[in-house]
Amino acid sequence: MIKYLRHEEIDKHTWDACIAASENNMVCALSWFLDVVSPGWQAYVEEQGGAYATVMPLPGTLKMGFPYLSQPLHAQMLGIFTTVRSSPAVREQMLELTIKRFKFINGYRFNAGDTPCLEKLQNTYDLVPRYTRLLALSKPYPELYKGYTRDRTMNLKRAQRANLRMFESDDIEPLIEHFKKHIAHKVVGGVSEVAYKMLRELFAAAKKHGMAQLMYTTAGGEVNAGCLFIKYNNTISYTFNSADSEGRAANGRTLVLDEIIRQHAGSDYVLDFESPMIQQIEHFYASFGSQRVKYFALRQNALPLYVKVIRNVRMKLYRAFFATGVAEEV
């Protein structure tokens, strides 16, 4: 029987044991990760023999008195995580319960392990296909290197000739300050201090659990690129990065990604580039020999008509506000 649990009802030790035992386990579904990116998260849980056999995190909130479900910042995918003891129909049951509970669902992303089940339900629910890029690191480095495109190998050689200094660090602040200075102004709507605070807390929690790896490249003593990776079980997640024009020209991130691949070559790790749906960025990740992997995002808008009208007006004002450039001056 599937139960809806409020945040305070969730046994987090039992939760994390279920995530770890599930075939499609991922770091962003662990309780401490969810506590950072979605405080007060709820869940659907199927119990068997006193243990959680299947779970689905629900990063929900209330807006205008209606339950909303959305994808938290820094969490690429969530969805349904099940152990071998669970019945095959549980995914469809949890999806149906989600649709009934949340009047508005803004792109809640299911993990790739849910894809075969969701493929069959596209005519029933508003499921939007999305893609990430994965690179299995089981081969020796020379074989992985052969999978790079010609352009990537050329850019890697340029990076090596650029005499960049590459090093690991336990300090997230240079990465945040670098992103603020060089990237944030390009993000539509800007980036709030809440997002940076969340990133700091996430890095601290991942470091506490021994899962964080933060790398920088510098030229002349100045950081020009930074990359944060979080490792859990057999997955390395490319969680956050920044590069300025100098870092891009010198291919700092190419140098870092190649080093991560080199360090973990011949292992059971898979590098998840957490690729966004932006062609240029996906092309960059594909150049390392990664494979395209499909997953689904769920949408729904069952709000009353008057709420839809208010929301649409707000969105139009929001877009017009930022289109004027006024937001950049505030």
From TrEMBL:
<feature type="domain" description="BioF2-like acetyltransferase">
    <location>
        <begin position="155"/>
        <end position="265"/>
    </location>
</feature>
<protein>
    <submittedName>
        <fullName>GNAT family N-acetyltransferase</fullName>
    </submittedName>
</protein>
<dbReference type="InterPro" id="IPR038740">
    <property type="entry name" value="BioF2-like_GNAT_dom"/>
</dbReference>
<dbReference type="Pfam" id="PF13480">
    <property type="entry name" value="Acetyltransf_6"/>
</dbReference>
<dbReference type="GO" id="GO:0016740">
    <property type="term" value="F:transferase activity"/>
</dbReference>
<dbReference type="InterPro" id="IPR016181">
    <property type="entry name" value="Acyl_CoA_acyltransferase"/>
</dbReference>
<keyword id="KW-0808">Transferase</keyword>
